[in-house]
């Protein structure tokens, strides 16, 4: 029971880190970046290559993966989304799906469809016993990273000039422009942060589930998107809460109900939550102030 | 008195609608100039175009002697132009203080506190409520916050779009007093108003807009006495 809970929280923490990328981009650029999941996969491959081929240390691998994904995120935004800033949201959505396919197929071309076995970067560090349950070092590192990221992002958005500008842009792009805020660079920074986090999520995900393929990011991406909607899209604490709940529900469903049905159960819970509370758990009510 | 803003033969389209049809006007340093006119006359469109939010299809806008066409809106702020938009548009989820800090986004950190003091002096109410979330302020307070926020960039030219909209008469008077005060402190004002009576009473000069054209202009006093203007905008 305890070990399921810890597994669930640790899986949920990965969803949460991915969900943060979805939710921040949605909050600020008002678009669903469906290629976000594939950035996770790119992060995984970058870490894999730097450890397996170049023999780098895990820390260097993580930093390298983050750097590549950050640049990738900014580039995707510049090339694919920025030209569509004033286009309909449907056009942007289709473009995002296109970018997602592009990344998957590029990875297929470069790395082939053979699954790579991801080296466990945190395997031999330590294990902790909680009662009868054993907590792996991957789980500990994952949960700790999640907490650190949450605290850092909260401080960033509430204390720094750029963070406050992001909240301003998220609320009213036009008014933010009138303050002298460069909306385009704010959106770039958002993509950079989201993609950097995706790289971390990629490394953590592949450490816990070490099969790396070009489609590795797709399902966690969709689950994390679900988590973001579940928690209330646009809300940072919502993404965290949604991610962790989703992970816990998924692991418990797998353990007690059915492995095959676990995903169906996760999405059923999402549907029920959205019926009861359409804005998600922590989503804001959209009321027009007159 | 130098020339602060000069607009010549300005044309703006909204899609296929020709909203501004060759407007020309100027604002000199130290003046309060007002654009009055009915709904849809093109007043807000004019301000938004000058501020760089909309693109003119033809015409020139000169600010402090320099042509500013094509300069993005956010860069005009650091050049000394500030638009306090229609409907206040304060950041509802940010605190009063954070809203004001956003207004000073283009300025170095060291100067922010000095500007805060100036704004708090003009709007003591904002100082009392600096920690409050802006969305919980009353309409009048939000208007003050929007004006204070625009003032934070220390603009040479401040454009105000319908600052009196939706406010009780006593608040309207207060807002206009503050506009006069800001002007006395050295800010040139370009004011767009539906409350023509109030606007003309504080304006050095005014332009009357009708369906995208300037139909009349002159000093505030002169227009207040003008029969056609009285009939159309001052209720006889």
Q: What does this protein structure show overall?
A:
The complex is a heterodimer of chains A (290) and B (236). Chain A is mostly helical. Chain A has helices at 2-29, 36-52, 58-81, 89-111, 137-159, 161-171, 173-178, 183-208, 218-231, 236-257, 262-276; strands at residues 116-117, 127-130, 133-136, 211-212. Chain A contains 11 helices and 4 strands. In chain A, the strands form 2 sheets. Chain A has a two-stranded antiparallel sheet with strand order 1-4. A two-stranded antiparallel ribbon of chain A has the order 2-3. In chain A, a hairpin with a 2-residue loop joins strand 2 (127-130) and strand 3. Chain A is globular and about 60 Å long. Chain B is of the alpha/beta class and 236 residues long. Chain B has a domain at 1-80 and 189-236: P-loop containing nucleotide triphosphate hydrolases (Rossmann fold, 3-Layer(aba) Sandwich). In chain B, helix 3 (96-103) packs parallel to helix 6 (139-151). Chain B is globular. The model of chain B has no long low-confidence stretch (mean pLDDT 93). The interface between A and B is medium-sized, with 18 and 28 residues.
Identify the most extensive interface between protein chains. Answer: A-B, 18 and 28 residues
Strand order across the largest sheet of chain B: 6-7-8-3-9-10
Strand content of chain A: under 5%
Rg of chain A:
19 Å
- Give the integer mean of the pLDDT values of chain B: 93
* Low-pLDDT residue intervals, each spanning 5 or more residues of chain A: none
Q: Give the helices and strands of chain B as they follow along the chain.
A: EEEHEEHEHHHHEHEHEEHH
What is the radius of gyration of chain B computed over CA atoms, rounded to a whole number of angstroms?
Answer: 17 Å
Structural class computed from helices and strand pairing of chain B:
alpha/beta
What is the name of the CATH superfamily of the domain at 1-80 and 189-236 in chain B?
P-loop containing nucleotide triphosphate hydrolases
Gross CATH architecture of chain A: Orthogonal Bundle
**Domain module tally of chain A:** 1
Ends distance of chain A: 51 Å
Q: How many runs of DSSP E, i.e. beta strands of chain B?
A: 10
Task: Please summarize the sheet with the most strands of chain B.
Answer: 6 strands, mixed
Q: Give unreliable regions of chain B as ranges.
A: none
Q: Count of helices of chain A? A: 11
- The level of helicity of chain A is over 70%
Write down the oligomeric state. Answer: heterodimer
């Amino acid at each position: 029971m305890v070990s399921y809970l810890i597994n669930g929280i640790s899986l949920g923490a990965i969803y949460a880190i991915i969900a943060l990328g979805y939710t921040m981009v949605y909050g600020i650029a008002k678009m669903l970046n469906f290629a976000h999941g594939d950035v996770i996969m790119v992060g995984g491959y970058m870490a894999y290559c730097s450890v397996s081929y170049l023999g780098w240390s895990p820390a260097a691998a993580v930093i390298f993966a983050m750097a590549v994904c950050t640049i990738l995120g900014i580039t995707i935004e510049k090339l694919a989304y920025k030209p569509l800033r004033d286009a309909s949201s449907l056009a942007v959505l289709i473009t995002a799906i296109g970018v997602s396919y592009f990344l998957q197929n590029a990875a297929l071309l470069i790395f082939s469809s053979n699954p790579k076995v991801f080296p466990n970067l945190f395997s031999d560090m330590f294990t902790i016993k909680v009662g009868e349950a054993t907590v792996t070092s991957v789980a500990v590192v994952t949960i700790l990273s999640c907490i650190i990221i949450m605290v850092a992002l909260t401080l960033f958005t509430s204390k720094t000039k750029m963070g406050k500008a992001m909240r301003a842009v998220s609320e009213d792009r036009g008014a933010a422009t009138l303050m002298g805020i460069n909306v385009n660079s704010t959106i770039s920074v958002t993509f950079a942060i989201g993609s950097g986090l995706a790289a971390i999520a990629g490394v953590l995900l592949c450490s816990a589930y070490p099969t790396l393929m070009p489609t590795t990011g797709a399902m966690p991406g969709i689950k994390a998107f679900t988590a973001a909607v579940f928690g209330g899209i646009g809300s940072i604490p919502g993404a965290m809460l949604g991610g962790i709940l989703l992970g816990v529900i998924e692991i418990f469903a797998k353990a007690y109900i059915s492995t095959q049905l676990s995903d169906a159960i996760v999405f059923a819970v999402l549907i029920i939550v959205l019926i009861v509370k359409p804005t998600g758990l922590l989503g804001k009510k959209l009321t027009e102030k007159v | 008195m130098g020339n602060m803003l000069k607009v010549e033969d300005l044309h703006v389209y909204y899609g296929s609608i020709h909203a501004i049809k060759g407007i020309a006007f100027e604002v000199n340093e130290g003046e309060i100039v007002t654009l009055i006119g009915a709904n849809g006359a093109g007043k807000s469109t004019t301000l938004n175009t000058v501020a760089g939010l909309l693109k003119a299809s033809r015409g020139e806008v000169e600010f402090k002697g320099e042509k500013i066409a094509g300069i993005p809106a956010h860069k005009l702020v650091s050049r000394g132009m500030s638009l306090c938009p229609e409907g206040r548009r304060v950041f509802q989820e940010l605190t009063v203080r954070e809203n004001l800090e956003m207004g000073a986004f283009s300025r170095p950190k060291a100067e922010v506190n000095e500007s805060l003091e100036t704004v708090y002096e003009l709007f003591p109410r904002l100082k009392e409520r600096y920690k409050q979330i802006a969305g919980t302020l009353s309409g009048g307070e939000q208007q003050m916050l929007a004006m204070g926020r625009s003032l934070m960039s220390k603009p040479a030219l401040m454009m105000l779009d319908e600052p009196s909209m939706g406010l009780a008469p006593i608040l309207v008077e207060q807002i206009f007093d503050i506009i006069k005060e800001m002007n006395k402190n050295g800010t040139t004002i370009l004011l767009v108003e539906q409350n023509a009576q109030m606007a003309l009473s504080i304006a050095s000069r005014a332009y009357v807009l009708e369906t995208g054209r300037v139909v009349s202009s002159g000093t505030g006093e002169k227009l207040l006495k003008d029969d056609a203007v009285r009939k159309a905008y001052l209720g006889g």
